[in-house]
UniProtKB/TrEMBL annotation:
Pfam families: Glyco_transf_34. Keywords: Glycosyltransferase, Membrane, Transferase, Transmembrane, Transmembrane helix. The chain crosses the membrane at residues 34-53. The keyword Coiled coil does not apply. GO terms for molecular function: alpha-1,6-mannosyltransferase activity. Gene3D superfamilies: Spore Coat Polysaccharide Biosynthesis Protein SpsA, Chain A. Residues 1-12 have a biased composition (Pro residues). InterPro entries: Glyco_trans_34 (IPR008630), Nucleotide-diphossugar_trans (IPR029044). This is Glycosyltransferase family 34 protein. It comes from Pleomassaria siparia CBS 279.74. It comes from the Eukaryota. Belongs to the glycosyltransferase 34 family. Residues 1-20 are annotated as: Disordered.
């Protein structure tokens, strides 16, 4: 028979147990404090991540659903140095249109953003990004320059221009991005529901006096890429205009989300280098743009006066 096992531990077990190295009290306290500190840092890191996620989601405990807010936010950057009477009329022009269609407006000042030595015209880019952070539930953000007026308030852009089926009918495909002979052309197989930025061309290139961006992570990427300090430091001749043309031509991820539409849809020129086919303002167009009316000793207020008269329904010979 095999020998019976005893319930008493073998001698070496006791010897091993007794031979373990005792931890000095001072070292034990250091290890205890290190453990507590590690736990505390882990808890702090967890709540920091939770706070960042809530902050990026708009500051609420739950994410805001795109489409739950106003369908369109109209963004116009205001120059605080401009004639305030004229500024108020420009703002009212947007507010009346927005109220008619259930939209919202946003009027930041060009000095609200860290442009450093860049031209003030760059402010339009962070202004749209700012509007997105304030209106996370809205679907579209329409930037409309202060040099433009909405002339046909009966046109509702989401149903008449931006609905996928309508957008596909208006999209200009296989067109040089920079006229007349850019080798980079707009894609020919895009679907309307895949479009996140809608722009127009004038005679010289892509315009920024009026453009539309769909809310979402891609739009944030697009605006951040456009506003990159590297591009602002390039000293492009036309500042943000040439920067936009650069990223559209050299970044396929942007061109793949871009729709080029006829200029007269929402960017008709009263003066300036209008697109020869469809860029000149005509009665009934949604928008009348006076490009450059704030430069070269010109006056937007003077050039818009007769158009304000039309909007206000006054006789054309009115001196008010």
């Amino acid at each position: 028979m095999p020998p019976r096992k005893t319930s008493r531990p073998p001698p070496y077990a006791a010897r091993n147990q007794s031979s373990s190295i005792p931890i000095p009290p001072a070292l034990r306290n250091i290890l205890r404090r290190a453990t507590i500190r590690t736990i505390a840092l882990g808890v702090l890191g967890f709540f920091t991540i939770v706070w960042l996620l809530r902050w990026m989601g708009g500051g609420s405990g739950s994410a805001v659903v795109i489409g739950s807010g106003a369908p369109v936010v109209i963004v116009t950057v205001i120059d605080p140095k401009a004639n305030q009477g004229w500024v108020e009329k420009v703002k009212k022009n947007r507010e009346d249109y927005a109220a008619r269609h259930g939209y919202k407006t946003f009027f930041p000042e060009n000095q609200d953003y860290p442009l450093r030595n860049s031209p003030l015209s760059w402010a339009k880019v962070p202004a749209v990004r700012h509007a997105m952070s304030l209106n996370p539930g809205s679907t579209w953000f329409w930037y409309l320059d202060h040099t433009a007026l909405i002339m046909n308030p009966s046109i509702e852009i989401t149903s008449q221009f931006l609905a996928p089926a309508r957008l596909e009918k208006h999209m200009i495909v296989n067109e040089p991005v920079v006229p007349p002979d850019s080798v980079i052309k707009t894609f020919g197989n895009l679907k309307g529901d895949r479009i996140d930025v809608v722009v127009t061309q004038d005679k010289e290139g892509i315009t920024q006096s009026s453009f539309v961006v769909r809310n979402g992570e891609w739009a944030k990427f697009f605006l951040d890429a456009w506003f990159d300090p590297i591009y602002r430091s390039y000293n492009f001749q036309k500042a943000e205009a040439h920067a936009l043309e650069h990223i559209v031509q050299w970044h396929g991820t942007i061109l793949a989300k871009l729709a080029l539409v006829p200029q007269n849809l929402f960017n008709s020129y009263v003066t300036g280098p209008a697109h020869p086919k469809d860029g000149q303002y005509r009665n009934g167009d949604l928008v009348a743009v006076f490009p450059g009316c704030d430069r070269d000793k010109r006056s937007c207020e003077d050039e818009m006066r007769s158009f304000f008269t039309i909007l206000e329904g006054k006789p054309s010979n009115s001196q008010d």
